[in-house]
UniProtKB/TrEMBL annotation:
Its EC number is 4.4.1.11. This is Methionine gamma-lyase. Its cofactor is pyridoxal 5'-phosphate. The keyword Lyase applies. It is an enzyme of class 4 (lyase). GO terms for cellular component: cytoplasm. GO terms for biological process: transsulfuration. Keywords: Lyase, Pyridoxal phosphate. It comes from Sphingobacterium corticibacter.
Length: 395
């Protein structure tokens, strides 16, 4: 079988029917009708069509679908405008009013709001469980449970869900499973290997890799992707031709980028652990991570996502230290998002404490001294030196 590195460059080339080595950007909303009336009708309704109307498909999106499906070892994949479009479309293709969904306590912030506010408002019941405790998933199953939705490693706590255990439980109870695989990337983790039914990605992150586009992907069986595609026609979050082309370009280097990012992050996390001024380093690749063994079982690499908790006599001091560190850093840029070639750092408590539960000011979900880091592909010596000078300046 052809390897991932090759698929990233060559899969789905049949969708480029020009003689250009790099496919053109199909910057068009609509396509000339071809063939008989029957053929036109099947273009519109039969399947994902690359040549009908943009909401139905685009040749670059079709090529991307082939590549991303290969990456996730799924039959098919659908590309959409954002990761949130992938999440909402995939979930709304699975459940209707009266159904019940099991989700984790820790999720990407907007997904969290989708599960806490949007689904219940449309008559879909949601139970939030501790992702590290398989008994909680089992205990939450009801007669009307249709979906278990997972995220591992989760944002920003970097907790791991046992994919195989949840998949087995779900299959036994005929419940569909979806995993947000954004943090891991398909280079490091392929949830379908463990019996999971479908995967979603914010392709804005590692898949795109250059912080220059937003996109989302849904991967699964042909049947599920067809259902999701039909939902996407109504929800309407189509991936634009330009972003589609940028994503195709970004994907070519995915395996190279992830190799370097994995290496940089492991080196950095190991170096940061025990450093003065830092109370705690959380990285799934460190033996000190409470779920390191599980991570090692289901992941091939440990990603570029890590977090540090700054020391301080109290929360306020830790908060002040975190703010000062953000100001002093030069290479690590204070910005949301992740998975790009550049290293980014964010302060979760400022951004996301309001989206979490318990989200009370007296007991915040995220410690005030916590910083989340997305490690990029800069030289490791420069990354270390930047953190070193910033840490020294807050002592
Ligand atoms: C960013 C992100 C999303 C949402 O993706 P967008 O492209 O921003 O809509 C979903 N899940 C995770 C884990 C993310 O990091």
């Amino acid at each position: 079988m052809r390897k991932v590195e090759t698929d990233l460059i060559h899969e789905g080339e049949q969708y480029n029917d020009t003689r250009a080595v790099t496919p053109p950007i199909y910057q068009t909303a609509t396509y000339l009708a071809g063939g008989t009336m029957e053929e036109q009708l099947s273009d519109a309704t039969g399947t994902k069509s690359p040549y009908f109307y943009h909401r139905h498909g685009n040749p670059t999106n079709s090529q991307l679908g082939e590549i991303v499906a290969k990456l996730e070892k799924s039959e098919d994949a659908l590309l959409l405008a954002t990761g949130m479009a992938a999440i909402s479309t995939a979930v709304l293709a699975t459940v209707v009013a009266g159904d019940h969904v099991i989700v984790q306590k820790a999720h990407y912030a907007a997904a969290q709001v989708f599960f806490r506010e949007f689904l219940p408002a449309y008559g879909i019941e949601v139970t939030h469980v501790d992702q590290t405790n398989i008994a909680e998933f089992e205990g939450a199953i009801q007669k009307n449970t249709k979906l278990i939705y997972l995220e591992t490693p989760s944002n920003p706590n970097l907790e791991i869900t046992d994919l195989e255990a949840v998949a087995q439980l779900a299959r036994k109870n005929q419940i569909f499973t979806i995993v947000d695989n954004t943090f891991a990337s398909p280079i490091n983790q392929t949830p379908l290997d463990f019996g999971i039914d479908a995967v979603i990605h914010s392709a804005t992150k590692y898949l795109g890799g250059h912080s220059d586009l937003t996109a989302g992907a849904i991967c699964g069986s042909k049947e599920f992707i067809h259902k999701a595609w039909r939902r996407s026609l109504l929800l309407g979050a189509s991936l634009s031709p330009m972003d589609s082309w940028l994503l195709l370009r970004g994907l070519k280097t995915l395996s190279l980028r992830i190799k370097q990012i994995n290496e940089n992050a492991l080196t950095l996390a190991t170096w940061l652990e025990g450093k003065q001024g830092i109370q705690k380093v959380t990285y799934v690749g460190l033996p000190s991570h409470p779920q390191h063994a599980l991570a090692s079982k289901q992941m091939r690499g440990f990603t570029g996502m890590l977090s540090i908790e700054l020391a301080g006599e109290d929360e306020q001091k830790a908060y002040a230290n975190a703010q000062r560190l953000l100001e002093k850093l030069d290479i690590f840029a204070n910005a949301v998002s992740l998975g790009g070639v550049e290293s980014l750092i964010t302060h979760p408590a400022s951004l996301w404490n309001s989206t979490q539960q318990p989200g009370t000011p007296s007991k915040p979900a995220f410690p005030l001294g916590l910083l989340r880091i997305s490690v990029g592909i800069e030289h490791i010596d420069d990354l270390k030196a930047d953190l070193q000078q910033a840490l020294e300046s807050i002592q």
